[in-house]
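Example 3.2
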Amino acid sequence: MDFSPLWISLKVAVCATVFTFFLGLLSARLVISLRSGKALIDGIFSLPMVLPPTVVGFFLLIIFGKNSLLGGLLLKMGISVLFTWQGAVIAAVVVSFPIMYRTARGALEQVDVNLIYAARTLGMSEAKIFFRIQLPAAWPGVAAATILAFARAMGEFGATIMLAGNIPGRTQTMSVAIYTAVQSGDRSLAYYWVAIIMGISFFTIFLMNYWMGYQERRGGGKR
């Protein structure tokens, strides 16, 4: 039994979640601080969530293709993301980013503004306010966003197969392995990978619900 799709999926999902965590937080903070153009920027950041993953993958192919400006520059540096696991990470980041961004933004916007105003009157910088007040207060929501982003990255298929392809042992994730097994008529293998990915996804959602419940109980105990 080849377990490489499992390890590749975990590697891609973990790496993508790390990038998505920081990009989502920074983007949420940026949009919240904007005074104009907020709707436009929010629409751009949220677009991958409503586009079909294959469309996202098509745009990624255009951006990172050999004939593109960025793709050509990367090739001159000896770097290629096409048909590599790094390409799968990029696809997972783009697709899971809107979940992290929107959930983190909602959590940050729920922080009591009076705490922020009080911190400003005390002379705290905006960076200190974010890291010492906003982020700790919004942490339950941010943690839930991170878990959901991981689950989304784990199950990504459309953009991944467009950008990273389907190379066994290199870029074949569990989702792609399921597709390949069904196409080849190997239903037993497809059921096997479906069971694994469903188990991981269920555990991820369970972990998020447990975390949210723990935070609510902890908050209730403090009051």
